[in-house]
Amino acid sequence: MARASNSVSKSYPVEHYEKSGIGFPVSVLTADEVDYFRSAVEALQEELGGKPSAADMAQTHIAFEWAHRLVTHTKILDAVEMLIGPNLLVWSTSIFAKYPRDPGFISWHQDGTYWGLDSSEVATAWVALTNSTVENGCMRVVPGSHCQPIHKHVDTYDKNNQLSRGQEIAVEVDEKDALEVVLNAGEMSLHHVNIIHGSNANSSDDKRIGFVVRYITPSTRQSGHSQPVTLVRGIAEYGHFDLIP
Fold this sequence. Notes:
Helix content: 10-25%
Strand order of the largest sheet: 1-9-4-11-2-12
Number of strands: 12
Distance between the termini: 28 Å
Largest sheet: 6 strands, antiparallel
Number of helices: 5
Structural class: alpha+beta
Order of helices and strands: HEHHHHEEEEEEEEEEE
């Protein structure tokens, strides 16, 4: 396991992550930074009609300086480095917004099912730009499920499912096994590519915004057409992906 700088607390639960597939909460943004990044996201939402989908707000780190600043934030990279090593690529980003009383949800699924990556050296950072609570639809996970095989999924195409095809795991998940990933604004969680996770709808009067970054190692390959990636720390010596300047 690579050693990160002192900007990450020594109490960061690396061992817990390896056992459960999830590590949280990790404090990464100051209050001023939260205001800055949230304002940038909300300005983009307004430009896109007020309530754009997650698909409409994908890959912002390529197009916007503020989003690039977020994916290269030292505290985020230090925490990710502790999990998958010193050479880090940003494979993709998404902004998951749940608006007040919106029925949108994310079904139980495993990302490793459909990303086409040949490695588990992948860490997803879920950065809270608002408080993320049970009431407003925080992420939920099944701890330890990253150690299970990849399960079959079905495409539901549910209109309220925020996943592109409404992907849903084709095995029953016992709700008593679910862990609510509650975060304050400025905190993040890190989760394994194969952990079973999802989220409920926002039943509150508050907006919930999460900025999601998928980090991979340069040795990782992608089946089929490989999308361009951004090198954010270390070196990319394998040449498996085209690098975005």
